[in-house]
Write a structure and sequence with these properties.
- By secondary structure, this protein is α/β, with parallel strands linked by helices.
- The protein has 16 helices and twelve strands.
- The strands form two sheets. An eight-stranded parallel β-barrel has the order 1-2-3-4-5-7-11-12, surrounded by four helices. It has a four-stranded mixed β-sheet with strand order 6-8-10-9.
- Strand 11, helix 16 and strand 12 form a beta-alpha-beta unit.
- Helix 4 packs parallel to helix 6.
- The chain binds beta-D-galactopyranose (GAL).
- The site of beta-D-galactopyranose has 13 residues, from loops.
């Protein structure tokens, strides 16, 4: 009897705990991770094609995305999976060199344009909304050869590409994501661990940060001026946001600086009222640069005009979240590790984890659901009541157990924290995206 009553109470509680009407659920993929067909038709080479072919040892199982899930050929099956899951939307990305084989907007690939057009049409026919990312890391190699994201002209090349895509699909796509995770592109991309495989932490990475923000803003302004009046779509970018906890109370101040370099460096210019770099971080890097004998700060300044261009270039705030890490100062002679994965050299910080947090198949990724709520509250506190669209969240495991209870638990517990953030902290979350629709090429971890 008691069990029945407790069960009934739990049921009532569970029944009351629901996401509000209109809250959208979906799932995501990215072009390089699923499409394969890396050289089909007239597709250009991307930096990921070049990276995996020239540096196979950089991928843990020496695999690559040449075939991946073969979604270039099997996309109808992907759509069937989405239908079976009953999602509201599907987030996928467009491969820049598949649409623009030269990287530039001088020539649009008919096959590339048709591929994404067919996918979008088939989704809409089934009542699944396409959420389209313009850049999920597969830069045309031709542009990399000209400096890639460190070349200031790239913001115009990106806007040219965006115009081609808006012209092709703007009538059917209402939610756009310009750039996926600039911090991975710019910071991990310049540690040598992922494409383009260059090592220029704290210099190339900051040039990239500035230019990728400008690229996003130019694409946003283009849409705002020329497409939004007609199509009424929404545009933003999505940032990777880990949550950070001080290892001990003494690390509290340092942890704020870690949030500034990791979260706010990409958010403050766009979502804050003042715009520009987070002031405390800007001061820190300027001072450190001076101490190192640099003639100017390694963090390139924005002009006033650039601040205005970038500030407010959003219709929602995209957020990808997986994990929480602890923060401590590196000891004497201790190396701070790779950006974001193990530490922050700029700040002399080492990242760790509490022993009770379960580990996953990704070395940087520990399970701590409460961190999600804390992160969401932080974002609200920093940037106000902006509509937050969670564009990635999920668990990596070895894929050996199809009855994957840890994944079920992960989603249950992380979603509960999202709900708590909404109900208790008044955070305005509008949608949730599970990463991923299917097992795929997980960058430097290959298919492991
Ligand atoms: C994100 C990335 C995805 C996926 C995910 C899982 O950083 O955007 O492409 O790989 O991590 O690790």
């Amino acid at each position: 009897m008691k069990a029945v009553i407790i069960g009934a109470v739990l049921c009532v509680a569970a029944a009351e705990r629901r996401f509000p009407d209109g809250f959208k659920f979906g799932t995501a993929t990215a072009s390089y991770q699923i499409e394969g067909a890396w050289n089909a038709s007239d597709k250009g080479e991307s930096i990921w094609d070049r990276f995996v072919h020239s540096r196979p040892e950089a991928i843990s199982d020496r695999s690559n995305g040449d075939v991946a899930c073969d979604s270039y050929n099997n996309w109808r099956e992907d759509i069937q999976l989405l239908e079976d899951l009953n999602v509201d939307f599907y987030r996928f990305s467009i491969s820049w060199p598949r649409v623009l084989p030269t990287g530039f907007a001088n020539r649009v690939s008919e096959d590339g344009a048709r591929y994404y057009g067919d996918l979008i049409d088939a989704l809409l026919e089934r009542g699944i909304e396409p959420v389209v990312t313009l850049y999920h890391w597969d830069l045309p190699q031709t542009l990399q050869d000209l400096g890639g994201w460190t070349n200031p002209l790239i913001s115009d090349w990106f806007a040219d590409y965006a115009r081609v895509v808006f012209d092709l699909y703007g009538d059917r796509v209402k939610t756009w994501v310009t750039i996926n995770e600039p911090t991975v592109v710019c910071d991990i991309g310049y540690t040598g661990h992922i494409a383009p495989g260059l090592e220029s932490e704290g210099r190339g990475s900051y040039l990239c940060t500035k230019h990728i923000l400008l690229a996003h803003a130019k694409a946003y302004r283009l849409y705002e001026a020329e497409y939004k009046p007609q199509y009424q779509g929404q545009v933003s970018l999505t940032n990777q946001m880990m949550w950070f906890e001080p290892e001990t109370e003494e690390d509290a101040e340092l942890t704020e600086l870690v949030k500034a370099i990791s979260i706010d460096r990409y958010c403050h210019p766009i979502f804050s009222a003042a715009g520009g770099w987070p002031p405390a971080l800007e001061r820190y890097i300027a001072q450190k640069s001076a101490e190192e004998g640099e003639p100017r700060s390694r963090l390139p300044p924005f002009t006033q005009e650039e601040i205005e261009l970038v500030r407010g270039s959003y219709d929602y705030l995209g957020l990808n979240h997986y994990t929480t890490r602890t923060v401590r100062r590196a000891g004497a002679g201790e190396e701070a590790g790779t950006f974001l994965f193990d530490g922050f050299q700029e700040l002399g910080v080492v990242l760790g984890a509490r022993p009770e947090w379960p580990t996953t198949m990704s070395h940087w990724f520990m399970v701590h659901p409460e961190g999600f709520r804390a992160l969401l509250s932080y974002v609200k506190q920093q940037y106000g009541d902006v509509a937050i669209f969670i564009l990635e969240n999920g668990l990596s495991d070895a894929g050996t157990d199809l009855d994957d209870q840890p994944r079920v638990d992960y989603y249950t517990n992380y979603l509960e924290q999202v709900l708590l953030a909404m109900e208790q902290d008044g955070v305005n979350v509008v949608g949730y995206t599970a990463w991923s629709l299917m097992d795929n090429f997980e960058w430097m971890d290959g298919y492991q």
